[in-house]
């Protein structure tokens, strides 16, 4: 088969089947994927991949068959990888009998699939999270690293906050890229693909909720790259833990409410600091966000509950997964509110979601951990979206501070302050 892409002698050898039929198919898939987007060559990956497909849905039979073929040929990723969260945690996220039956149907191949993941290069049993780049997890790229990731919230963080380079790849392609150690060079892997088509002028009188700001940006620019001016008035020019948490959540909302894979924040994110407004294309568009626009965005969210006046029965906080800093902050906020109101426990079943390694680190702070658990809060490592995918669970009156979860489920969005009012 003739390929349009410029290939190295070694790549041609692989595509001729000289290193086995399975490796040939893996590389061929990556090449054809790249050619679809106009890539002229492959480049070496310089960091571990992160997989978006973490769930054992039985209908993904072709994926399981492909995994078995990779395993039988002894093929695994060049470096140990991480993967998105698990779907189920009955100890901390309760389910009744009927819900468990549906979950069993939905994720019935979970155990087998996790076994396959380990055999092709999964880092360890704790490597299930959408925030693989957190220090406790350890899949932390460096600026300029070439990656092949697919999880939207991780892609936008790696590109924007860290300054690594990855496209928002299709699921399974990132695994095959990890196997062959190559990814197609196009989009965010090129200098031109990282330039901004939108200037976002933030003119609010307050720091907007990151989930709402990200939502506004995502819905306006869709898949284009925005250059955000005015946010540094509130965040400063230092990537502190609080600032990185803000950008994490803002980026996740922009990626789910639109399809943003990279943003630049003036005077703050690496490339914006270095190149400033030179990152803007000559014919860029402008979007002004002021107080009234933030209010309009919030009012535009549809209510998906069957009964709009239903009382919340469940609250998810942490989509994407919370950082250790955010776990500590939520513990402090909940504890202060309990003391202020004279309550012993929350009225609404509240679940904080974080990476397994982050939860383990948080538990080492026994005082804070006991303070949080004694309030009735549960800690889990699951993806709340996968919980909400269960049609029985989607009927519940679920509230969340995540615009990503709101977008992909029937959960109702509230700001952090509003959440604190509802759960007490």
UniProtKB/TrEMBL annotation:
Keywords: Iron, Lyase
Single annotated GO MF: lyase activity
UniProt superkingdom: Bacteria
Pfam families tied to this protein: AcnX
Positions of the Phosphomevalonate dehydratase large subunit-like domain: 5-411
InterPro entries in the record: PMDh-L-like_dom
PANTHER family documented for this protein: DUF521 DOMAIN PROTEIN (AFU_ORTHOLOGUE AFUA_6G00490)
Protein name stated in the entry: Predicted aconitase subunit 1
Organism: Caloramator quimbayensis
């Amino acid at each position: 088969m003739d390929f349009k892409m410029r290939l190295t002698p070694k790549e041609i050898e692989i595509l001729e089947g000289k290193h086995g039929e399975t490796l040939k198919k893996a590389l061929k898939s990556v090449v054809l994927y790249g050619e679809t987007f106009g890539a002229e060559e492959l480049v070496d990956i310089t960091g571990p991949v992160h997989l978006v497909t973490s769930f054992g849905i039985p209908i993904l039979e072709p994926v399981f068959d492909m995994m078995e073929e990779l395993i039988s040929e002894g093929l695994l990723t060049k470096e140990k990888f991480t993967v998105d969260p698990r779907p189920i945690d009955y100890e901390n996220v309760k389910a009744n009998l009927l819900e468990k039956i549906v979950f069993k149907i939905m994720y019935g191949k979970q155990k087998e699939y996790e076994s396959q993941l380990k055999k092709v290069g999964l880092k360890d049993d704790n490597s299930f999270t959408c925030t693989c780049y957190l220090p406790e997890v350890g899949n932390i790229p460096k600026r300029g690293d070439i990656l092949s990731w697919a999880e939207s919230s991780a892609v936008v963080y790696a590109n924007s906050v860290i300054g690594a380079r990855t496209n928002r790849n299709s699921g399974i392609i990132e695994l095959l890229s990890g196997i062959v150690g190559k990814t197609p060079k196009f989009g965010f892997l090129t200098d031109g693909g990282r330039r901004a088509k939108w200037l976002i002028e933030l003119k609010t009188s307050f720091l907007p909720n990151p989930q709402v700001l990200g939502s506004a940006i995502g819905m306006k620019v869709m898949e284009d790259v925005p250059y955000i001016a005015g946010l540094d008035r509130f965040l400063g020019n230092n990537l502190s833990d609080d600032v990185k948490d803000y950008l994490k959540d803002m980026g996740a909302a922009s990626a789910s409410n639109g399809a943003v894979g990279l943003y630049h924040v003036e005077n703050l994110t690496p490339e914006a600091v270095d190149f400033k407004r030179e990152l803007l294309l000559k014919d860029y568009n402008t979007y002004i966000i002021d107080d009234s626009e933030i209010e309009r965005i919030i009012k535009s969210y549809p209510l998906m509950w069957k009964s709009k006046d239903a009382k919340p029965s469940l609250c998810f906080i942490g989509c994407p997964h919370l950082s250790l800093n955010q776990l500590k902050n939520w513990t402090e906020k909940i504890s202060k509110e309990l003391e202020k109101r004279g309550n012993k426990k929350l009225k609404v079943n509240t679940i904080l979601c974080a990476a397994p390694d982050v939860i383990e680190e948080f538990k080492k702070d026994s005082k804070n951990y006991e303070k949080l658990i004694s309030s009735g809060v549960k800690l889990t490592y699951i993806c709340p979206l996968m919980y909400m995918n269960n049609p029985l669970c989607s009927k519940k009156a679920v509230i969340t501070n995540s615009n990503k979860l709101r977008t992909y489920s029937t959960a109702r969005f509230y700001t952090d302050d509003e959440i604190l009012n509802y759960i007490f």
